[in-house]
Amino acid sequence: MTHEQNAHIAQAVQMLTAQLDAAKVLSSGPAYDEARQVWNAAVTRHPAVIVLCGSTGDVQSAVRAAGTCGLALSVRGGGHDWAGRALQGELVVDLTPMRHVRVEGRVATVGGGATSMAVAEAAHPRVNLGER
Fold this sequence. Notes:
alpha/beta
């Protein structure tokens, strides 16, 4: 990375830690290493910053920081893309903390980090297999 890229990354980290819990802004360490893992172990990307978003406000802060600092942005949902494209940006908006699934009647409300398995598990008790 160039000196200019490093400066933009440092600016984004500073901006984000001023707005969010610092534990949500990862650029190194064990939590960072864990957050950059996807199901395909062959993917070894190292984005500059991973923001663990637990709310829409967190997402807005991360997107603004990427835009202000000129960083390439990618979004990680459930982390199941075989090629690991969710980690290709310099700043990753990680939605995995937003894994909530709520099923009411025939409508599911699903957080951006939910997996298809979580949706299936939440829907299963409510499925009437005889119904068409």
